[in-house]
Amino acid sequence: MRAIGFNTSYEIDEENSLIEFKAEKPISSEFDIVVKVIAASMNPVDTKVRVNSAKDIILDDPKILGYDGIGVIESIGSKVTNFKQGDKVFYAGDVTKNGSNAQFQLIDSRIVALAPTSISDEEAVVLPLTSLTAWEAMFDRMNIDPSENKTILIIGGAGGVGSIATQIAKQTTNLTVIATASREETTKWCKDMGADHVVNHRDLVNSVNEAGFESIDYIFNVANTFIHWDSMAELIAPQGKICSIVDTEEPIDINKLKAKSVTFIWEFMFTRAMFNTKDIQKQSDILAEITSLVDQSKIKSTLSKTFNGFSVENFKAAHKLSESGKAVGKTAIIF
Amino acid sequence: MRAIGFNTSYEIDEENSLIEFKAEKPISSEFDIVVKVIAASMNPVDTKVRVNSAKDIILDDPKILGYDGIGVIESIGSKVTNFKQGDKVFYAGDVTKNGSNAQFQLIDSRIVALAPTSISDEEAVVLPLTSLTAWEAMFDRMNIDPSENKTILIIGGAGGVGSIATQIAKQTTNLTVIATASREETTKWCKDMGADHVVNHRDLVNSVNEAGFESIDYIFNVANTFIHWDSMAELIAPQGKICSIVDTEEPIDINKLKAKSVTFIWEFMFTRAMFNTKDIQKQSDILAEITSLVDQSKIKSTLSKTFNGFSVENFKAAHKLSESGKAVGKTAIIF
Fold this sequence. Notes:
The structure is a homodimer. Chain A is α/β, with parallel strands linked by helices.
């Protein structure tokens, strides 16, 4: 089969930063299914893995990138009971395995769900990774009770995860959503996603206070943990919770959260698959919930850019756009 | 009234590290009651406040230390409905207010409970602060479900909080309790408290592994957050939770918890009183639960040393013992 990946970490502009190669078509077994991939989407993790995982080495077998995927089931393993050949599924994959940037992909059926039927493939494929991240952060990590009349601050509201987190929070909970943005375009985007308030993360504490909030019950940081640490410590309510998905560049003064008995939680969407946790099936259940919300028109796709065609050129352009940090919403590559 | 406290931060051996002075007897109002104090106990926070809160300054009014207290209600405020004059209550106080090292103390009725009747005053007075800390850590912060067959590692099992945490975990949950100790005396103490396993915190990862555990669902650190950080990161299960009550000496590499989507939570027993949170009454409810467990003989006092008499000499000796770090169990001062 045709696949796109890399065998050494290069800057994206280098000729071999991404390469096309022939790979063995995978074979389904046990819980694993083989999907004929229709489209993939870009997430920051694609570029991070490309840049960091093969520095100064050459991999024997090139690594296939791509986490978000949508496709049709080609074959199922012996333990798969809830899907059949021909089902169209979408998923966010497993960072420890080969990904969706190939004609066929092997994936654990317990982390896939039937794709939405009311939107296009490229609109659907941008949803899994960000939706799972946002859902797990709010409900599995911060353990938010949807009926609570509390506040959530989403730092980085216009990015992929921030956009979908805002929609999920507004559509499934009583939370008041304060999203952050700093440009006119991103501020408008956050409002389109349903944010009740949009504040500026360049002056976060004052900006939140000026919007009428002295403290915040839940903070979901999808932008920068280190830069916003002191502001988060100041804004978080006593006994509040902060969830982040972004590594810190430097060690952190966690004592700042102590007097208020604050909870700090990491959300890493690959944890369940990576450690094959007992609750791995939860990811399939969450994705099924996302499909349902989409097909009820409660959640809209965050797609903003589509590249047409399975080519190194298109994947390179998509990586470059992601690395620019300027992307609003999400990018799909349709094969 | 007679009171013991300090107006400058001194080492305990200095003459004026603690002084006796006359203070105004407090007056009850609203939710606040006045208690005629019978006994106090020592916690690390007493020495920390003494040493750190008046460095190179002289306070106009000496600060009265003492958080744990037991006594008889002398008068109640207008909003107090659940207690009456003459009730014997115990409590862990409020670090922002004057404490129990005085003949009378003003305290918010929403953080006190009727004292146990089956044990002595000195046995009872050592319980509130440690019990509240352990209870809040396990049930309000880590949100442990008592019915789960999971594991908890208590780092610092022989200290005041560790001792009571072990008992509460064993008596009210299905948790397997692994407590840490490093000396023969403390190892025996941990077993007496009910720990299922006692492991050595000087070689924590190996010691836990040798006890038969590859990973741990909940870690409660009451010893040293910084020193044990890497071991905790290694031992904690994917999606596990770590709660600490001890400030770190240096900034921390929190990224180590990310791949497993781990939760890190501070427990600070004074948060509810300090910020007058909406759920402040929860502390009274928890203490009432502790009283009930004690009077059902499910929890035993962690008292190991009693000083008799309200004197500067006795309080100094109690501070000195606490600062030695060698105390096993808890110290009471009975007036």
